[in-house]
Amino acid sequence: MKVRLLLTGCLLLNTMLLQANERWFEVELIVFERTGDSQLREHFPEQVTPIRLGRIIDLVSPLYNPTIQPLVSALEDCSPAPLNTAASSVFPSDWQAPHKLMCQQETQPLAWQRLALFPEKWLSHKVPWPSRLPHTLAGRGEFQGVPFLAEPEAFALTDVVAKLRRQRQQQVLLHTVWRQAPVTERRAIPSRWFAGENFSQRFDYWGQPITSEQHDTPVNDTQAAANANDVTSVLEQINSRRQQLAAGVSLDQPSTAAIDNSSNVQSQANLPTEVWQLDGLFKLHLDHYLFVNTDFNLRRMHNGALQSINVKQSRRVISGEIHYLDHPKLGIILQIRRYQPPEVAQP
Asked: CA-CA distances (angstroms) from residue 52 to 77, 150, 260, 306?
């Protein structure tokens, strides 16, 4: 018994010493796109460089794509109630209002589309992604011993963002502040950041247009035009599969143009399921000095197609100084500051 108490005391002491010696930093990150191409002579490859997620720190999704399945499951089904005379005089005759203030109304698959004998009810468990994310990303600043978003009062480079937004050929995509305790490069976990416009409804991850199975072709069009559209669709799918094979993505599943299947293939390959204007990883590690590794994909419309520009940079940084990572199309400004976590009562 005494040995067990002694071991427990030693473990608790080591935990307290590690927390006391752990250094926390506050990272302020600004990412902006250079939109001017008049004087740019550099040519970027057409091949999409995939960014595999793996084990990451995601501080963006909980804000804009939270899980709501427990809330939706607790609601009752929406069942229409008959209209009274007063309501029928205001609303159309074929309209029926639900009699519950809050209820769930999810479109269920048809009987012939259900594979299981007793299928579970399909419910949306995520909030739909918006078409565009705001460039400023802040949190509540609540310290819980893990990386977290800082409060708006922690932003110190707002004047820099204001100057960038006044310039015509600069578009600010992301401005955020988060806090974390860096570790060695071997133990460091990158954080994922994405922002800007969401192209997921129009393009797949490989930049190919998403074609619907039902073509909106008028009846009086010629057969040649229909065949040309079919050939274009097939070529787009072939180009998308070629890029997936070059990136090492398995194509065991049937190749269809459905969006759900494309998202399934991406998730199995640890690729992002959404196509954002800016998407990538930021890794901060500490080996006597602070080091930063960035790997971002910048998507932009170029000559009617979705172009992907991969930007990889590594830099040794000094806390307190403002660093600028330059690129012909993507600019990164960051400042890493010391942060003193609040004192937490030890057990």
From this structure: 39, 26, 19, 20
- Are residues 144 and 154 in contact, defined by beta-carbon separation less than 8 angstroms? no
CB distance 195 to 133 below 8 Å: yes
Question: Tens digits of per-residue pLDDT, 182-218?
Answer: 999 999 999 999 999 999 999 999 999 987 653 444 4
Name residue 345's amino acid: A
Give strand pairing partners of 280. Answer: 193, 296
Give the pLDDT confidence of 61-96 residue by residue, as tens digits.
Answer: 999 988 776 665 566 666 555 555 554 554 555 444
The model carries a pTM of 0.71
Q: Residue 282 is inside which H or E element, if any?
A: strand 276-287
Task: Quote the tokens at residue 84.
Answer: 């009274």
288: left (phi over 0), alpha (psi -120 to 50) or beta: left
Kindly tell me the sign of the dihedral angle through the C-alpha atoms of 42, 45, 46, 48: negative
pLDDT category at 302 given cuts 50, 70, 90 is confident
Structure tokens of 150? 């800082």
